[in-house]
Amino acid sequence: MDLTDIQIINILKKDARTPVKDISAAVNLSAPAVKERMDKLKSAGVIKAYTVVLEPKALGKTMKAFMFLTLRSPEKAEKFMDVIAKEKDILSCYFLTGDFDYMIEIATQDTVMLEKMISELRNLAEFSRTRTIIVLTTIKESYSVSP
Prior knowledge:
Elements: H1 3-14, H2 20-27, H3 31-43, E1 63-71, H4 77-86, E2 90-95, E3 102-108, H5 111-124, E4 127-134
């Protein structure tokens, strides 16, 4: 990956719908050359996907929270992960080292819906510890790493 690839990636990070001709003008390459580079970045796995980023508040998801969990019974982890995968308000789930086993990112309507989700998760599996942190203000939010 060279500087031109990085420029192309940075343009796409801002708007993945940027036309190839606009990218080519910005990086001083022909459109076919830019398209070829984009295809190579995709086939190499550097570009994982082109997607749309939705505004949670516009969809009524005004509350964001992070929940840290430690399962009491590790044998229930598979059932826990199945529920996590299906729950639409859970944006991400990470298996961790340290004080907790998992961290989930939640975007939901309000405290009532958050409480409902926490109750459902607690009924699903026994947790030895949980900690829920509500986001007040988002200072920075990136959807992709930088090259």
